[in-house]
């Protein structure tokens, strides 16, 4: 037993000697790297804004919309508001009849241009309602163009659920908010 004890002590001593006697690697401090300074390229900024065009290749009636600058669009009693069903951008027969009357007024007033505002009820997300309001306004625009009104006289915009005319939370209020309102102004020359 004494023999095993001595062997163990020798073995431990050798291990301590080996571990302590191993050469240590010198610690090298890395030199600080200077980060390059990025210089922004000089870009010429143009103050002119290119005109946006609406592109729907399947529709041959598409014409560039007028700009929204200038005189304010105002409600005209003769131009009827167009109403839509829930989650729909299709024109009913009665609404197409109202649009025919609106088209006649526009034909009799060639110096007027219009903007069609698409609106929705409060149901649905903000993004969805903006897109639905846009589809509603464009459906009205497309039908007026079909009836012979120049697309250059018709602008569209969507307000989604942002401008309700009725603030209730029931079907009566919602049905009044699902609409496309048509406002007019004198054509700028």
Name the poorly predicted regions. 43-65
Give me the secondary-structure category.
alpha+beta
Helix content: 25-40%
- By CATH, the superfamily of one domain comes out as OmpA-like domain
Query: Within the CATH hierarchy, at the fold level, what is the topology of one domain?
Result: 60s Ribosomal Protein L30, Chain: A
Span from first to last CA?
Answer: 117 Å
Give the total of beta strands. Answer: 5
Q: What is the helix/strand order?
A: HEEHEHEHE
The top level CATH class name of one domain: Alpha Beta
Count of helices? 4
Oligomer: single chain
Rg: 37 Å
Describe the structure.
The protein has 189 residues and is an alpha+beta fold. It has a domain at 80-164: OmpA-like domain (60s Ribosomal Protein L30, Chain: A). The protein has helices spanning 2-21, 93-108, 126-146, 171-177, and strands at 74-75, 82-83, 112-119, 154-160, 179-186. Strands 1, 2, 3, 4 and 5 form a 5-stranded mixed β-sheet that branches. Helix 3 links the parallel strand 3 (112-119) and strand 4. The termini are far apart. 24% of the residues are buried.
